[in-house]
Amino acid sequence: MTAADWTTLGSAPTTDAAAIRRAYAKRLREIDRHDPTAFQALTQAYRAALQAAQDAASAGASAPDDVPPDEGQAGDPPPSAPQPPTFASPPAAVHPPAWAPVTDPAPTWASAAAPGTTWKPGDSLTEAVALAETPLVDWATQFDQFIAAGRYFSDVTGWHTLLHRLRQADLDTQLTGVTRLLAWLTAGGNGGLIAPAAQAAIADTLERLDATALPAAREWHQQVVGVPPMAYVPALTLPADEQAEWYRTRLRLYGLLNAPDATAQDALPAVCEQLLAGPLIDADTAILLAGATLMLAPRLPVDALAVIEAQLAKVASTDPARQLIEAYVAVMTGTQLTASMPRPTTASGMPVPAAMYAFISMVFAPTTKAAEKLWRQLPRWLVPDDLRRWVIRHVYELPRPKSRRRKVVLRWIVLLVLIRGASMLWPDSGDTSAPTPSRVTESSVARVHVPQVEFHDDFFGPAAQVGRIETLDADPHAGSQVILWAYWASHRTVSGVAFKPELFTGTALAQMQTGPPSQLKQLTDGQWTSLWFHWSATDKQFGAYEWWTSPTTGQWFVVRLQPQSATVAAELYGPGWTPLAATDERRLREQAIPSDP
Amino acid sequence: MTVVGIDLGTSNSLIGYWDGTAVQLIPNSLGSVLTPSVVGVDDDGGLVVGAVAKAWQYQGRDTAAEFKRQMGTAKTYRLGGHDYSPVELSALVLKALVADATRALGEPVQDAVISVPAYFNNQQREATIQAARLAGLTVQRLISEPTAAALAYGLHRTNAEQFLVLDLGGGTFDVSLLDMFEGVVQVKAIAGDNYLGGHDFTRALCQDFITNTLGVQSVEPAQWVKLYAQFDAVKQQLSTDETVTPTITLDETSYPLTIDRARFAALCAPLLARLQGPITRVMRDAGLTLSDIDRVLLVGGATRMPVVRQEVARLFRRLPDVSLEPDQVVAQGASLQTQLESDPALEAELIMTDVAAYTLGIETVAEDAKGQLIHDVFAPIIERNTPIPISITRTFTAAGRGRTIEFSVYQGENPQASANLHIGTLTLQSRHKVDAPLTVRFSYDVNGVLLVEAEDQTSGAKGELVITQDAQTLDQAAIDASLKKLEAFKVLPKDRAANQFLLAQLARAYEAHTGTVRATIQSAMVDFRSALDGQDPREIARTQQAVTAFLAQLDGDWS
Q1: ipTM passes above 0.85
Q2: Dihedral angle over CA of B115, B120, B123, B125, nearest 10
Q3: Is the pLDDT score of B220 beyond 80?
Q4: According to the CATH classification, is domain B360-467 in 2.60.34.10?
């Protein structure tokens, strides 16, 4: 912003955007608006002034010596000259999850080549390069600042050089950073300038993951899935190498589900098979596998799904498993299962409920026999024969292990899975005559508030931040199965949900589950989806949790407790959102939820 | 003489004027301010526009609709043995509107402000002007639809607001980001999808029915037309009802259906997803985030659909502004613009700046690392969403030697020049050598006129090319030919139009029903025809009333 610009604008230097607008509007009336030169000079001066005002506001900078105060704005804070964005000081430390071993060395990026003190938009990729080389522990903050700056680098060569470096990055320490930067680029970051090349780099990174050491993989999982691995299976005592192998396979599955390239889906069946052949099928993995099914389902012919639907209809309506499955399906797809379940019509249509229903029925079948029956009823498009045999052998039958140790471990794993499954199927065990074991006896609405949420997406908002939902009131519904979901606003990469494990103890933690959005692939295409998780309430409270992003700022989530049902649904409530039934709205009004907290 | 404002829409068109205190929309002969943009041929070979022609669509007669989508293209529509271009059909619609206005105002209508989608390219805008000329109108100004919507909402009188206008009409989706402050209306960015509109939502319902209920992939065109009409009603009903239970009739078979909003939303998911593309592009081009947007205006009849409103609300996390009738907003704004045009004081009060909708540039040759020449490379000179007027000079060098240099001018966003729209060629006569420096200046004014100037700096040879919205005017012979074809246009007398409309509705109802209902409809038709033949005004009026009530009852039963 030069003095000539201020002259063109006909204003004294100021950082007051309103004053700049007034000056612009005044000058616009004075100049010959059909004269391109005069108009463009004014427009550029106006833009530069506004940008400077914005920079000054965000930097909170004080007025530099060479800029006189704005005489027309008595009482205003001293104006300031625009400051280039700066990363001059090291970022505040990111709070690492308590469980995560911090193995990274001290941050080195701050002493790296000048990350931006003299930087101007479009100049260079110095910051991006420094960012990519930032140790894992500093990544989140740095990345968010990087995105928040809303910069655009037109240097294609520079980007390719950066991608080359990313492909060679040490995944042990930089996996998260590399992944997030690549995901951002793939999803259209920097104007989509380098998206195709970033996609290729992601594929490379996934390949390299096979050779990655476990700590980085764990960290990566925490970042992208948001759940401490193994946290809900505390008794797992696999040998380290098996654990690492299983874990990598799971990550690979997750990566494939996220892969921007549709052809990556071709690898899904093989990875599912590999995973099912592994030592552990926990519920989280089952959901991942279900996600894989979702990815494959849209390719299926209509009649095959009709067959499945008919077969699933045979599941007794009083079967507790059905309720659980229906809840899963409802949450994953946002669709209630009904007799007239929608059939798929397009590639992105509605084959989801049937496929999900089928798959989850199998995984959670209570007995070997039931599972076998379900599996055999499934058509081959869903599960190839080989995969079916693997599952039957490894999930429901004890294999013939070569070593006694492995045999014991496998017995324990299968037992754990069965116990866990049973506890979910019959939360009020013993009362099998009651199809709805909830203790909810009357409708009520609980409220949770999201005081501060931001989005880490260049379209929806500038920065990533944690939105925290505070503890609900003392829960009169202890023992209820709670399913909570929220529409996920991001149309880009998904960070997932991060629970605070320390807030969950005992059975609550053991029963907590989480999973990725049901159709991750679609998210990258700008789709909406639902993010879900559920847990069982403890005797004191529902518990508190936090997540990486949430739908909106300052909005209310309303937890709606439904009588005669084992589920408690939470929906986002706010202006323009999913309309609630009239009774719910009335109830909300009675509780005087402010519309703009 | 009154200047009229016209919304020439894909599905419906409207005309209005400023009466000194407020905008008045002019009803057509059937009493509706919405005149369907449909042209049909009657038994005598006359061309008829509006609701009557729309009703004929469902009877398999020759009609043309949605031709706005094809404006600026060479597509033709066959009606009554003649081929009509989209321009000629639009001219017919304009003629119908002008006839209504002339009757209402009691004076001839000559000047008009016509709205066009912000995303219309030069050829499409030019085609609109041609249509107006054929209809005997002089276009005072083409106003972009979002700007018209903003005017209608009175946003030009508010302070410091940035708002998005989402215009989902019958056939197009436009997103415009406007900044209003201190009496300045600044278009900051526009984007759109020329092939996404309310009709696509109806088509989704039809296709679902065809695939899942009929169990086939497609149906005959005549069947499609009938299905479309029925599902259009279903779609509209879903705007008010949570669940609709229509009985769809096709080839004398009835299909009872239950369609709820969730089902409809699922069917429309791909269409709803497409809404996001232009929105994202606009936000990016303007360098803004959602939190910078103060208001979101919904325009276009298709935004009545709750699924659309819900999608927008989810996306923006706020309630969109829908306080005005969405399908009348643009016409109101266009009419308001006539007031601004005619009143210098108001014009001074309100300043509007626009942007270039498309990138403008020339075809060039690039050299790769090995020194190989790569042809057909687009060199942008004026980027899209640049505020206009603008004048930019860029310097190129000659790729070869010769006596002439050709500058092919394109508009579009494709890096390959030929994939964009070619809008003109400037040929410079200049003996030049390789690497001779050439300067090219693009000057784009507020009326969309592009002046291309080129100069060979070595020889000093200069050339210029003016590309205007009406540059490619039809020659007199072509205009005469079009006018002759349009002579067949008929303005039905008001009473006759109403009667024709009722008869068409009865015919449509007859096709939609079977059995005793059909017999009843037949007898109603007989009675009505008999009354018309009798030419007793009181008897005709009485029968009209009875038929109208009867049709309303039928509609109620059907839904």
Answers
A1: no
A2: 10
A3: yes
A4: yes
